């Protein structure tokens, strides 16, 4: 409207193009805008809209201070009774949607095989040397027929505990012995032909 009034032209308001990623085309030309009264600007419009006429009537007949307008205020105080009524209405209008039944659980075969590691205990034998007198070392033999190499086996020897595990093949052995083992000098060797893991465990003095 300002351009039409200033340059006395009629702009087509139905055919226009929105500029994307740019504010102007060509170069900007400086314009001087006169700060005039709003009422005078609206009265100068050749065609006034309904909102313009409402605003113009409000400017011509201003409401006295404290007079209530027809518009609802943005913030309104309500009492406790109204709050309770609103809460009851909100609760009563809720719709309970039944939950869909969950799909049947299908376990992962790999995880099942790992979780069943404790169900298969390998055959084992434990010898002491010498057979009479104070024991100097323990020799353990563990038969693991499903293992191919020593990389599949995890062995952890503590002071009085032997923990042997081969999760992918389903082996687990956890035993305690009546000797104090020198865990720093434990040696283990896996024979790929006989599938026997031999563990030599020196014994500390009592």
TrEMBL record:
One GO BP annotation of this record: box C/D snoRNP assembly
Give the coiled coil ranges. none
Q: Which domain of life is it from?
A: Eukaryota
> A Pfam family name for this chain?
PIH1_CS
Q: Where is the PIH1D1/2/3 CS-like domain?
A: 133-204
Per the record, its GO cellular-component terms are:
cytoplasm; R2TP complex; ribonucleoprotein complex
Entry similarity comment = Belongs to the PIH1 family.
Protein's name in the database: PIH1_CS domain-containing protein
Q: Which organism is it from?
A: Anopheles maculatus
